[in-house]
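User: Please fill in residues for this 265-position structure.
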């Protein structure tokens, strides 16, 4: 009996040892690594694009006789042109939100001579005088500061701008005589603006922007040989331009959002 007990005990011990050895060899399945987060969109890079919109010019005119040719309503024209610039997103590749850059724009304006005819009756000469101005193009250079919410960029801009004009004409509507105060030239001023831009693809984005350009005054004197208002000086003041445009940009340096960026994470 005792021998049988010892044999059973020995067999039980061997069986227990075998189970323990087998359990030690069993490995728990490895936990799958978490899916990598897609890299955040990055705005860094050079870009080029085009824009369409409208501009509103304001131009008040007075002269030595106290005549007021002010046009209190802004004169609207269609504009179209292009822009080129550079962005750098601070904390590049690490998800920083601050974006700074520089941009230059050039836009042509539709002819606004027909909408800028300001006529005033002059009692001194008993005739009606018309003042015509025509701004033909606008160019700006500005710094941009923005904050990126992934593919949405909200920004402000500030810098300078120039407006090109085809002279400044004064016409006597009674006689048809006229003179131009200056030949084609340009005038500059300060610029502030802002907008937002949406990247609908890795290389492409669409923007909406508003700009205000404050311009300096101009003055010219009617030549001595003029058949009317000889020696009179016309002065322009309160000159400004407002623009609202929609544009599309193509951004180079596509690698800032491509596989090379993902490899850095």
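Assistant: Residues filled in for all 265 positions:
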């Amino acid at each position: 009996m005792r021998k049988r007990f010892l044999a059973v005990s020995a067999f039980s011990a061997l069986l227990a040892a075998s189970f323990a050895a087998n359990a030690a060899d069993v490995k728990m399945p490895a936990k799958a690594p978490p899916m990598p987060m897609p890299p955040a969109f990055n705005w860094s890079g050079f870009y080029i694009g085009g824009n369409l919109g409208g501009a509103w010019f304001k131009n008040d005119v007075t002269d030595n006789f106290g005549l007021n040719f002010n046009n209190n309503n802004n004169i609207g024209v269609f504009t179209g042109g292009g822009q080129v610039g550079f962005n750098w997103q601070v904390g590049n590749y690490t998800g920083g939100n601050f974006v700074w850059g520089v941009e230059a724009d050039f836009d042509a304006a539709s002819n606004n001579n027909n909408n800028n005819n300001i006529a005033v009756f002059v009692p001194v000469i008993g005739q009606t005088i018309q003042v015509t101005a025509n701004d033909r193009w606008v160019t700006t250079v500005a710094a941009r500061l923005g904050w990126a919410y992934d593919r949405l960029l909200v920004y402000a801009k500030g810098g300078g701008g120039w407006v090109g004009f085809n002279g400044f004409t004064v016409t006597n509507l009674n006689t048809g005589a006229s003179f131009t105060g200056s030949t084609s030239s340009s005038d500059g001023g300060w610029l502030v603006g802002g907008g937002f831009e949406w990247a609908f693809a890795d290389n492409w984005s669409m923007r909406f922007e508003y700009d205000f350009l404050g311009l300096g005054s101009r003055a010219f004197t009617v030549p001595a040989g003029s058949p009317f208002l000889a020696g009179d000086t016309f002065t322009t003041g309160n000159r400004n331009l407002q623009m609202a445009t929609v544009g599309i940009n193509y951004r180079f340096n596509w690698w800032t959002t491509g596989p090379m960026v993902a490899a850095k994470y």
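For context: Residues 257-265 have pLDDT under 50 and may be disordered.
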